[in-house]
Amino acid sequence: MAGNPNKPCNTETTKEEKGKDSNKKKEEEKEMAPTSSSAMHRSSSRPQLDVSGAAIQGNFEERNPTILLPNQSDDISHLALDIGGSLIKLVYFSRREEQSSHDKRKRSSKQRFWISNGNRRSYPILGGRLHFVKFETGKLNECVDFISSKQLHRGGIDSPSWRSGSQTDQNIVIKATGGGAYKFADVFRERLGVSLEKEDEMDCLVAGANFLLKAIRHEAFTHMEGQKEFVQIDHNDLFPYLLVNIGSGVSMIKVDGDGKFQRVSGTNVGGGTYWGLGRLLTKCKSFDELLELSQRGDNSNIDMLVGDIYGGLDYSKIGLSASTIASSFGKTISETKELSDYRPEDISLSLLRMISYNIGQISYLNALRYGLKRIFFGGFFIRGHAYTMDTISFAVHFWSKGQAQAMFLRHEGFLGAIGAFMSYEKHGLDDLMAHQFVERFPMGAPYVGGKIHGPPLGDLNEKISWMEKFIQKGTEITAPVPMAPPGTTGVGGFERPSSKGDTLRSDASAELNIGVLHLVPSLEVFPLLADPKTYEPNTIDLSDHGELEYWFTVLSEHLPDLVDKAVASEGGTDDAKRRGDAFARAFSAHLARLMEEPAAYGKLGLANLLELREECLREFNFTDAYITIKQRENEASLAVLPDLLMELDSMNEERRLLTLIEGVLAANIFDWGSRACVDLYHKGTIIEIYRMSRKKMQRPWRTDDFDLFKKRMLGSGDQNVQPYKRALLFVDNSGADIVLGMLPLARELLRRGTEVVLVANYLPALNDVTANELPEIVAEAAKHCDILRKAAEAGGLLVDAMINIQDRQKESSDSVPLMVAENGCGSPCIDFRQVSSELAAATKDADLVILEGMGRALHTNYNARFKCDALKLAMVKNQRLAEKLVNGNIYDCVCRFEPAQEL
Ligand SMILES: Nc1ncnc2c1ncn2[C@@H]1O[C@H](COP(=O)(O)OP(=O)(O)O)[C@@H](O)[C@H]1O
Ligand SMILES: CC(C)(COP(=O)(O)O)[C@@H](O)C(=O)NCCC(=O)O
Ligand SMILES: [Mn+2]
Predict the structure, then answer these.
(1) Residue closest to 282 by CA, chosen among 290, 292, 274
(2) 792 in the same domain as 738
(3) Counting Cβ atoms within 10 Å, is residue 440 exposed (0-12), middle (13-18) or buried (19+)?
(4) How far is CA 532 from CA 537, 755, 864, 896, in A?
(5) What is the CATH number of the domain that holds 385?
(6) What's the CA-to-centroid distance between 709 and ligand 3, angstroms?
């Protein structure tokens, strides 16, 4: 919506904060008790939902099972629209997690202990995914077809009401904003039988922007001279700011708080002007084509520059260089030239610069008028286009002499639609926090290129076919947003922005620079993080291009072997081969896209790439690629465990502790994600390699804090030490790593009176052991060891093995418990900003955290600090990482002990 200069649109729309009650987060209940009689659960109910009588639909073992709320009178809406002058924006929520065969397999496997004991796990009330899609307003029918094919107006194809046909369309109300909510209300009523409930456009823009800035990590960024930098927004220091939404027209809104704003200005020279004038002058058929043309343009053929007026000289007295634009389109006054004498490329660029500068300048003036330092730009005119953002940034920077800052939003075009979505009173999404959203790379929708009209790649077969077609066509993977190398700006700064780029990713392609937002209300920040605000999980920052290239190559080279394993894990059938092929293509396409635009989905770290690989595997129904290897290695290791325990028991406690830590480091060699290690496995049996690895454990290790740890565990001289109360052991790989490394260490802690929680992955990743697999492994190990048996019984891990419950209670009551908790992850790394509520609950009374393995202790969390003591143990199984991180070599070991961080 533009400000009309003839009729100032300066409405004083100050809205008071709505629904204060709903913002008050209910005090959450946390508990975790060691014995089987109390629960390891956390409930997180949202006040807006009537959850009385709620029942889990399906199996308790599912991660996010559908929750039926029998007493919830209204169905929760899943769709909101922003129908603008140029584009229709759709935000929709899909509640159901896709049912993977992993879940099916899990169902048949042994139940986890807290389930067996009748304890509840926490279930997200509204777990699901937020999707973002757009259509041209002129193609309203395509949008209606899309909604209809996915039944979004009825809560989605998978909603129970849709399947049972119980809902009548007449009652359905969909929130909509933008002028089209009025203009096209009839079309929606006639074609879908739904009514649109109109929400004020400015209200929605502000609500959308505030939500994004508070809840989405890496939402805002600066863009100067081709360099994108994410800005960490402090929630307590967000207001006031100027919001500039560049749609067809431009709105400028001073935002002072939630629902507190004033539309202070606007301009009618906006996105519609660029697209409309551009189309007339260049005969372009699409907005993208016009934008692409600009990238090959030279505006000095169209614009009158300072140098044109001053005979090639700078007008340095007032700080203008010769190449500064004096008058946009000033050269086209020439009487001897016609439109056809000018290159469309040059026209497009001049127009883009003219409009972007103008908006940047007016924005600055309004920021100045109200003393605002920060300006956030949204609206689809920006299109993640580097040149547009650079131009606006230059204008703001130049005119404010660096005092004001232009920032952009990744969900730029969806502010209004998100705001409309937030306006549903019932779903209570407004007080969600960043840690409850996991932004994932878009899967499902075309990976690269292709249109998303009609129902987008619903089932697996469609996804595979799409990948196959994609391969046949040999479609090139094009860059999403052009990024040229940074250049200089010259005198006065008001020069031509440097990033012009070569290619523009198709606008119709796999959406924009945003992923799919997975909403998992049960996720929490790990309570033992010393400083969650400054915590950064990744050690390796992939914005360094050299690093990105290296890890890209590592992952690409690993791919054929991974596909082999994945296909074998599914029986090597033709179907598995076809899926394996599609997985490889999809993952490669994602990697290629990230190589071109590393910040496409926010700040990129190595952990994101490793998780992406696992996500891609799951997308093509490979639920556990290393299952056979894991089982084989578990069996082989369990067979030699009794001998190892005997050997350990013959040692004095000092020698034993050292041997245990050595054992953990040595056994960490069994990592099927490391190229070098996989090559080693051809050279011997598991046990031979384990023995060889242990033999090579020469102290001092590359990082060796063992003596410090020993002092804390055993004391020194006659000084008595208190044992740790509870230790959380973040375990890594299956086989020797867990059986011969971490379990014996857990046993030592138990023997010293420390409660132990084994923390493992929720979903498989590489050969990592999962929480679901641990009870069985512990049960096997417990057959040979009384300490483990009693502790496992005390922790409720051995319920199936128990014959006489009374005897068990008597026996186990003198043992501290051994427990298992899932971490909420399906990756070889761990991001402590987002862990399961189960793990968060398990931190109660914990005073020691042990992180094991490269993924959890080196790639991530190497620099993390905790409120309690932390021990980080890993073998470095990559030469480059060893050099970079510890100035050492492959197979060096890290034993880092960090006493509790003083707060
Ligand atoms: N595929 C596209 N088709 C048309 N316009 C586009 C497209 N992509 C980006 N734009 C730009 O985005 C502007 C619309 O932005 P938007 O925020 O959706 O505003 P509105 O709500 O007014 O439609 C258009 O005027 C144009 O400049
Ligand atoms: C994926 C991994 C982090 C798993 O390591 P782990 O946590 O099991 O010790 C690691 O295998 C890795 O970084 N691999 C890639 C490096 C390489 O192949 O050299
Ligand atoms: Mn691992």
Answers:
(1) 290
(2) yes
(3) middle
(4) 10, 26, 9, 21
(5) 3.30.420.40
(6) 24
Instruction: Determine the Cα–Cα distance for residues 623 and 645; give it in Å rounded to an integer.
Output: 33
Distance between CA 195 and CA 798 in Å, rounded? 56
- Is the distance from the beta carbon of residue 855 to the nearest atom of ligand 2 less than 6 Å? yes
Q: Which of 674, 680, 889 to mutate to test the pocket of ligand 2 (most atoms within 8 A of CB)?
A: 674
Whether residue 14 has pLDDT greater than 80: no
**With contact defined as beta carbons under 8 Å apart, do 179 and 202 qualify?**
no
- Cα–Cα distance for residue pair 469/480, rounded to 1 Å: 21
- Say if 747 falls within a structural domain: yes
The neighbouring-strand residues paired with 195 are 173
- Cβ 480 under 6 angstroms from ligand 2: no
Report the SS3 class of residue 393: helix
What is the separation of C-alpha 859 from the centre of its chain, rounded to a whole number of angstroms?
17
Q: In angstroms, rounded to a whole number, what is the distance separating the alpha carbons of residues 279 and 282?
A: 5
Does 258 lie in the same domain as 191? Answer: no
613 and 637, same domain (yes or no): no
173-177 vs 79-83, strand pairing mode: parallel
Predicted confidence (pLDDT) per residue in 279-318, tens digit: 999 999 999 899 999 999 999 999 999 888 888 777 777 7
Q: Which of 31, 69, 30, 44 is nearest to 155 (CA)?
A: 69
Position 45 in a domain: yes
pLDDT at 685 over 50: yes
Number of the ligand 1 atom closest to the C-alpha atom of 86: 23
Q: What is d(CA 641, CA 648) in angstroms, rounded to the nearest whole number?
A: 10
Which of 551, 611, 671 has most ligand 2 atoms within 8 Å of CB, for mutation?
671
For atom 1 of ligand 1, the residue with the nearest CA is 287
Last-in-domain residue among 576, 602, 619: 619
H or E stretch covering 600: none
Ligand 1 near 275 CB (within 6 A): yes
pLDDT given for residue 206 in this prediction: 97
Task: For 569-584, write each residue's pLDDT tens digit.
Answer: 999 999 999 999 989 9
pLDDT at 426 over 60: no
Query: Are 611 and 508 found together in one domain?
Result: no
Cβ-contact 243, 249 below 8 angstroms: no
Q: What is the ipTM of this complex?
A: 0.85
803 falls within a domain? yes
| Contact in structure between 49 and 28 (CB atoms under 8 Å) | no
Share of the chain above pLDDT 70, in %: 74
At position 567, the amino acid (one-letter code) is V
Kindly state whether residues 246 and 165 are assigned to the same domain: no
Q: Are residues 583 and 483 in the same domain?
A: no
Q: Domain limits at 587?
A: 545-619
Q: Is 536 helix (H, G, I), strand (E, B) or coil?
A: coil
Tokens 């006040």, located at residue: 47
pLDDT at 511: 40
Q: Check whether residue 109 and residue 188 sit in a common domain.
A: yes
Classify residue 415: in a domain, yes or no: no
List C-alpha distances in Å: 53 to 166, 340, 461, 555, 862.
20, 72, 38, 48, 45
